[in-house]
Specification:
Elements lengths: L1 H30 L4 H46 L7 H5 L3 H17 L7 H63 L3 E6 L10 E6 L6 E2 L5 H18 L4 E5 L7 H15 L3 E5 L3 H5 L3 E9 L2 E11 L5 E7 L1
């Protein structure tokens, strides 16, 4: 503003001096060339006019330089801080310069306290944001998969529990029947330790042989335990039969009477399934169709011998030995 006022003043001064010069020249022409003072005055005015022209040129250049700097500053403020200087000129007139300078100092100190600025922070943030979104999506997928698996497990548990309870009830009934058949009386029960969670519950077996009190199977004698186990095996086999079954020394603790009852039940199941019985009991062997044994004719040399029994109406057996 100062440069503009100075330029205007100089322009007016130049115009005034130009008018004076013209008057002087006119007077000079009127008076003639005999006046030395007028000529000197004209020369002086001309020199002063040239100086004023030079000064005017300098002020005009300064004015243009100030306008350029002002425009550059305005563009920089708009680009860097989104502040339009023209829009806040009226606001700046009411701002306390000292208070503003103090706030600027505080902001500079706060900015310096942040330390080194990471120029690639935005790019790193974008990469981390993509990674974070990816992991969140993966977490969501895993949570959904977990929920699906949980529902599938619940469904499997419900179905398994239902099937188990149905099978358990059938086995319980068959176990009582075969226990009475093998013991020629008595009673037996099978209980779940935890009926609320049958899939994880233990099973308790209570038996009462004829003439005895109801007691846990662990309190029975060796033969009674074996016969109770045989009754449970046959009960399970009755409910869920299979093509073949292997019994290893199952009759070792039984007396002759119990072996007879065991053999009769075994013959019943042998009509629909194949049984492989490992035994030393002769009465059990009599009920077999094929017998396999190990012999040692020479010292240190074992040989497998198989014998097939053919049962006649008169129940006489003929044996054919085959050396393998």
């Amino acid at each position: 503003m100062y440069c503009e006022n100075s330029s205007i003043g100089l322009k007016g001064l130049i115009e005034e001096k130009t008018g004076s010069l013209k008057e002087a020249e006119a007077r000079y022409l009127e008076v003639s060339q005999g006046s030395g003072d007028v000529t000197l005055k004209i020369e002086t005015d001309r020199d002063e006019l040239d100086k004023l022209k030079n000064r005017l040129y300098e002020l005009q250049m300064q004015d243009k330089d100030i306008d350029y700097k002002y425009s550059s500053m305005k563009e920089r403020m708009l680009a860097a801080y989104k502040v339009d200087l023209e829009a806040i000129e009226n606001v700046l007139e009411t701002v306390d310069a000292a208070r503003l300078a103090e706030e600027i100092v505080k902001l500079k100190e706060r900015l310096d306290s942040y330390g080194t600025v990471n120029l690639v922070a935005i790019e790193e943030y974008d990469e981390l944001k993509k990674r974070y979104d990816f992991l969140i999506q993966q977490q969501t997928d895993l949570a959904n998969a977990k929920e699906i698996l949980h529902q599938a497990i619940l469904k499997i548990n419900r179905t398994t529990k239902q099937m188990f309870m149905e099978t358990f009830e059938k086995v319980r009934g068959e176990f009582r029947n075969y226990f009475r058949l093998l013991f020629n009386g008595g009673d037996a029960q099978v209980y779940l330790v935890d009926e609320q969670d049958p899939l994880e519950s233990g099973i308790e077996i209570i038996c009462r042989p004829p003439g005895k009190k109801l007691q846990n199977v662990l309190l029975l004698s060796g033969g009674e335990k074996s016969l109770s186990a045989i009754a449970l095996i046959f009960a399970i086999f009755k409910v869920k039969p299979s093509p073949f079954c292997i019994l290893d020394e199952i009759d070792a603790a039984l007396d002759e009477a119990n072996v007879d009852r065991f053999s009769r039940v075994l013959q019943e199941f042998a009509q629909s399934s194949q049984f492989i019985v490992i035994t030393h009991n002769k009465k059990t062997i009599i009920n077999a169709n094929v017998m396999y044994g190990i012999t040692m004719e020479q010292s240190g040399v074992s040989k497998i011998v198989s014998v097939k029994f053919a049962k006649e109406k008169n129940r006489e057996a003929t044996a054919v030995a085959e050396a393998v």
